[in-house]
Amino acid sequence: MKPFNPLAGNPLKTRDDFAKACTSLLDPLIPNLTPGYSGVKLGETGTRYDETAALIEGYARPLWALAALLAGGYQWEGTKKFVEGLGNGTDPEHDEYWGAALDTDQRMVEMCPIGFALAMAGDRFWDGLSERQKANVAKYFDITEKEMPNTNWLWFRVFANLGLSKNGYKYDHERMEKDMNHLDTFYRGEGWSNDGPRDYTQMCYYSGSFAIQYLQLLYAKIAGDVDAVRSEKFKERARLYALDFVHYFHEDGRAIAFGRSLTYKFAMVGFWAAVAFADVELPAPLTWGVVKGLLLRNLRWWSNQPAAFTPSGTLTIGYTYPNQFMSDNYNSPGSPYWAMLSFAPLAVPANHPFWTSTEEPFPSLSIPPTVALKQPGHIVTHLGGHTFLLSSKQECHYPLRAAEAKYGKFAYSSAFAYSVPTGSYSLWSSAPDSTLSVTYGDDAEWRTRKKCDTDSIEVIEGTPVLVSTWTPLEGVSVRTWLIPPSEDTPNWHIRAHHITTARPIKTAEGSFTVSNERRGDNRELEIYSEGQDGRFGSTNEAFAVSRTGAVGIIDAGTTGRMGETMNMDSNSNLLLNRTVCPLLLGTVEKEAWYLTLVYGLPAPTDEAEDWRKSWGKSYARKPKIPEWLLKKVTC
Question: Which InterPro entries does the record cross-reference, listed alphabetically (predicted)?
Answer without folding.
Answer: DUF2264_C, DUF2264_N, UCP014753
